[in-house]
Sequence to fold (296 residues):
Amino acid sequence: MFGVVITNFNCEKFIEITIKRVFSQTLKPEQVVVVDDASTDRSLDILKKLQKEYNFQLIKNPRNMERVYSRNRGVEELKTPWVCFLDCDDFWEENYLASVEKYLQQNPKVEAIFTPPKGFINEEGKVIKKKKPIRESLEELLFSGRVGYPSGSCFKRETFISLGGYKDIYLHREDWEIFLRFYVAGKILGLNLQREYWIREHPLRSSKNNPQFLEATLRVIEDYLPLIPPKWKPLMLFHAAEQCYRFTKPECGKKYLIRLLEENPKLLLKPKMFWEIFKRLPKGFFRNKKHKKGKN
Fold:
């Protein structure tokens, strides 16, 4: 039922455990494809050694093509009805695929499934943060930018291909954008709350503190705001504002806050929403405003 695509780039510290966790699933994948994106460390040698023990196809990109290309390339090799993605540094628990299958049995019309992570682990595999229980709806998560970790993303393969797969233009938020594209295309999305995987935090994680993450976020938002139901637009504008402040772009944040206030000012009255913006404001934000007012 499931094919798995693993993308690898310089993941020598983690790729072995990642591969072993895939093949120790209680529900075995029918097909596994690993796409190496021109690694320069020892990970390719490790993968070749692992091939002697585990049955997976290894594809080597001729040069670094980035993860969007690598994931789509892996899907081309699959023959399975469903594709699940796994980043080389993340960690599936043994019941991950079984939990996705169970969800599909209960929701057979779904064409894309997102499973939120249990939390975050460090380089040594120790838990550094556990995620809180999710009380929001799928739509609330989707339009606030909280859907999209590839390691928790599974798609009906034919639909994934027909909608064009991951898109380079949205690199760094391609994992979020594809769920929005499924939604706008009228496909049924699923939210699997049986959380069976961990995201690994480490210095080489490509999207962490990368300013291109903000650029991609704003591109996704501006492209999809005209396409989504009006009731969900405030959540997208809020996500834009909080990301602007996260990357210390106060003028950008202010612009989206103004647009948010025009759409739904009550959203900022929610304590959680207010705090998400407040905690990201630059130090001295209010002091500077007061000082400027005094000079006038």
Q: What stands out?
A: Residues 69 and 168 are 8 Å apart (CA to CA). Residues 229-295 form one domain. Confidence is low (pLDDT under 50) at residues 288-296. The chain has two domains: 2-200, 229-295.
